[in-house]
Specification:
globular; two-stranded antiparallel ribbon; single chain; small GTPase binding; 379 residues; Rab-GAP-TBC_dom; Helicase, Ruva Protein, domain 3; 3 domains; mainly alpha
């Protein structure tokens, strides 16, 4: 009651104040409407882009299935196919194109996969047995057991947000089988951390035996073999070649990294080991794989330079620790369009030399002892 009386005693608002409040209210309403219209336009644009993207994928799929794949050897290197390839492969043909592009130099058959898979299964059964009789092909039982343990541990950490490779998930046993069979097929390489991500991406796009064939052939490529066998001299060759193109394309950032003695091994190893499947969103990583299958190892390093170009302004403001942390865990909102426009801007030519020529001359320099080893690899 008292408050009502008090309100009655309050002086009436002046006309100016009432008008001002009304104006403020109208402005707020107008601003909210503007925001609403802007959001609606944005949603409409996103939907339009999505429809266009889906239409492009559908059209590209028809071209791949009807024209390119039936005439693979003739068409794979044509300009039209290379341009279409750059835009990303339709998911329905991705596995097939990857298999054809990677090839099967090792001549592995599905039957051979079954043989190595059954060997792996036998070893899993006799996991507890450590008799010397099981020590075959120069690999100790302890090493093999460690390898199998590492596979188990790594599978649980492979694309955890998808919940499909973890125990109980639909692809857990397939991933386990492919990795186990590989350790029997290549005991000289064994299982190395990071392999599970490569095998998982292949399993998502190919049937089990085909995934194994592509996996074994992919890991047999010079770059992958150098990294997975931890061949320091070959890894240094790749890092040194990368730095030539780093300096050529991003000289300011290159000098910034140099000032902190921040060498490529600190961030590149993880990127190359998993072919970006751990560092980038899965759909974007698959698009990187598309062009990697087209262009070979050079594209892995071009992608690395594309990432550095994309975040150049941010990285120039950071010190050693923050750069290392940032490049180890890239932002999750990284988009295909932005990254690929940065990759496209990277020139893979130093003066008149291309990647392979620079690579060959770096190898010669290393052999002559003219290159210093990278600090992180000295230990």
């Amino acid at each position: 009651m008292a408050s009502t009386l008090n309100n009655r005693n309050l002086p009436a608002k002046s006309v100016e104040e009432a008008l001002r409040h009304r104006q403020e209210y109208d402005e707020m309403v107008a601003e909210a409407k503007k925001r609403e219209i802007k959001e609606a336009h944005k949603r409409k644009r996103i939907m339009k882009e999505r429809f266009k993207q889906e239409e492009n994928i559908a059209n590209a799929m028809v071209i791949w299935i009807n024209e390119i794949l039936p005439n693979w050897e003739v068409m794979r290197s044509t300009r039209r196919v290379r341009e279409l390839w750059w835009q990303g492969l339709p998911p329905s043909v991705r596995g097939k194109v990857w298999s054809l592009a990677v090839g099967n130099e090792l001549n592995i058959t599905p039957e051979l996969y079954e043989i190595f898979l059954s060997r792996a299964k036998e070893r899993w059964k006799s996991f507890g047995e450590t008799s010397a009789d099981n020590d075959t092909e120069g690999v100790s039982v302890a090493d093999r057991e460690a390898s199998l343990e590492l596979i188990k541990l790594d599978i649980s950490r492979t694309f955890p947000s998808l919940f499909i490779f973890q125990k109980g998930g639909p692809y857990h046993d397939v991933l386990h089988s492919v990795l186990g069979a590989y350790t029997c097929y290549r005991p000289d390489v064994g299982y190395v951390q990071g392999m599970s991500f490569i095998a998982a991406v292949l399993i998502l796009n190919l049937e089990e035996a085909d995934a194994f064939i592509a996996f074994a052939n992919l890991l047999n490529k010079p770059c992958q073999l150098a990294f997975f066998r931890v061949d320091h001299s070959m890894m240094l060759k790749y890092f040194a070649t990368f730095e030539v193109f780093f300096e050529e394309n991003l000289s300011k950032l290159f000098l910034h990294f140099k000032s902190y003695s921040l060498t490529p091994d600190i961030y590149l190893i993880d990127w190359i080991f998993t072919l970006y499947s751990k560092s980038l969103p899965l759909d974007l990583a698959c698009r990187v794989w598309d062009v990697f299958c087209r262009d070979g190892e050079e594209f892995l390093f071009r992608t690395g330079l594309g990432i550095l170009r994309l975040y150049e302004d941010i990285l120039l403001q950071m010190d050693f620790i923050h750069i290392a942390q940032f490049l180890t865990k890239l932002p999750e909102d990284i988009t295909s369009e932005k990254l690929f426009s940065c990759i496209a801007a990277i020139q893979m030519q130093n003066s008149t030399k291309k990647w392979t020529q620079v690579f060959a001359s770096v190898l010669k320099d290393i052999k002559e002892g003219e290159k210093n080893t990278s600090p992180a690899l000295k230990s």
